[in-house]
């Protein structure tokens, strides 16, 4: 979250021409509000990949079936029947490798579609600490499945589309209070 906030608040590469009141502009645009989006479980192609890995994992030997067997199961799965399967496959392979490595490190619970704890509850219990550590006035935490919550992101909703949250990896969006108020007014929140 700190890195994302730093990236979002870093100065633009090109300076605007003409006179501006820098102190006012910086203060008005300084992010003081954070929106944190959480996913309860893996969905779509990630969920299908996890199901395949669960079926291809031998708990006794703590090993997976051959990569060719996993790829074959992926091609035979519902996502293997989609027209854009080749595009999805490019996303699946790194995810499969990551989850295989994670499983070997922490055990078969890494293949669960949900976390073994309530991520939303943990974040809610620590909201004051997060606000202090990042320097925010307000932090709201939502499930990504809540459409009205996604609408609060306004133009930043593209961030959620490009890198959607997954269990254990929430996505944070930071904005100035003025932008947040405008987004809230548009969504009626």
Automatic annotation (TrEMBL):
Domain Leucine--tRNA ligase RagD-binding: 38-115
Location of the region described as Disordered in the Swiss-Prot/TrEMBL record: 1-26
Polar residues: bias regions: 1-11
Superkingdom classification of source: Eukaryota
Example of a GO biological process term: leucyl-tRNA aminoacylation
Pfam families, A to Z: RBD_LARS1 (PF24810)
One example GO MF annotation: ATP binding
Family to which this protein belongs: Belongs to the class-I aminoacyl-tRNA synthetase family.
Name of protein: Leucine--tRNA ligase RagD-binding domain-containing protein
Species the sequence originates in: Picea sitchensis (Sitka spruce)
């Amino acid at each position: 979250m700190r890195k994302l906030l730093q990236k979002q608040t870093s100065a633009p590469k090109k300076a605007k021409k003409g006179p501006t009141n820098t102190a006012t502009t910086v203060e008005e645009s300084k992010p003081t509000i954070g929106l944190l989006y959480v996913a309860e479980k893996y969905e779509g192609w990630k969920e299908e990949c996890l199901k395949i890995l669960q079926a291809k994992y031998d708990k006794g030997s703590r090993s997976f079936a051959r990569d060719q067997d996993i790829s074959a199961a992926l091609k035979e799965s519902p996502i293997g029947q989609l027209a854009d399967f080749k595009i999805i496959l490019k996303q699946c392979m790194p995810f499969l490798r990551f989850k295989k490595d994670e499983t070997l490190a922490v055990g078969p619970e890494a293949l669960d579609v949900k976390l073994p704890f309530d991520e939303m509850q943990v974040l809610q219990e620590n909201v004051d600490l997060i606000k202090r550590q990042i320097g925010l006035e307000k932090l709201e935490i939502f499930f990504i499945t809540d459409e009205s919550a996604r609408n609060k992101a306004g133009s930043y909703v593209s961030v959620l589309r490009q890198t959607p949250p997954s269990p254990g990896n929430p996505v944070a969006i930071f904005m100035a209070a003025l932008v947040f108020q405008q987004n809230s007014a548009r969504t009626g929140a």
